[in-house]
Design a protein that fits this description.
2 helices; Synaptonemal complex central element protein 1; 0% strand; mainly alpha; rod-shaped; meiosis; 185 residues; coiled coil
Length: 185
């Protein structure tokens, strides 16, 4: 009776052991799968972190570049503003000089006309005073007056050509400021 009693028990235990071993084997494979999955996820995470670091570095670089470009833009704008102000000042000065030259020319013309009138009167007086002068002295007197007239006219011509030269320079300066103005604007 004892032998029969132990037999089924051994069989039960053997079956149970077989089932447990199969279960253990299945679990082992499952663990391997989970570990493999965990490893590949870890690799993916590492790759993503590396990419994140690179992107962050790239972003910082771009931000720095943006700051530099912003600074350069501001500097160029300030330079441009300064240039425009300088041009405006130059134009105002040129206009002022032009007006002064015109005034000087007018003054000069008035003086010349006044001088020519006086000279004409003097010449007339000299001619009229012919009777008071000895005939031999009269030609030299007239020659002196004529000479001084020519010298004064010559001096006036020089003054006028200086004024014209100055006016040309002003025109050049003005056209220069106008071209630089169009480039900066």
């Amino acid at each position: 009776g004892w032998h029969e009693h132990v037999e089924p028990k051994v069989e039960q235990l053997t079956n149970k052991l077989r089932r447990l071993q199969q279960g253990k084997q299945a679990l082992g494979e499952e663990v391997k799968e989970v570990q493999s999955l965990r490893d590949s996820l870890q690799e993916e995470l590492d790759a993503l972190q590396t990419e994140a670091y690179q992107l962050e570095a790239f972003h910082k670089e771009k931000e720095e570049l943006c700051r530099i470009l912003q600074f350069q833009c501001e500097e160029i704008e300030q330079d441009s503003t300064r240039q425009k102000q300088l041009n405006r000042r130059s134009k105002d000065l040129i206009e002022l000089y032009r007006c002064q030259i015109q005034e000087t020319k007018l003054r000069h013309r008035k003086q010349r006309m006044k001088f020519e009138n006086q000279l004409q009167q003097l010449i007339e007086q000299h001619k009229n005073l012919h009777s008071l002068f000895s005939p031999d002295r009269l030609p030299s007197e007239i020659e002196n007056v004529t000479n001084s007239k020519f010298q004064l006219l010559k001096a006036e011509q020089q003054k006028l050509s200086q004024l014209c030269h100055l006016e040309e320079k002003l025109d050049e300066a003005r056209s220069r400021t106008e071209t630089t103005d169009t480039h900066t604007g």
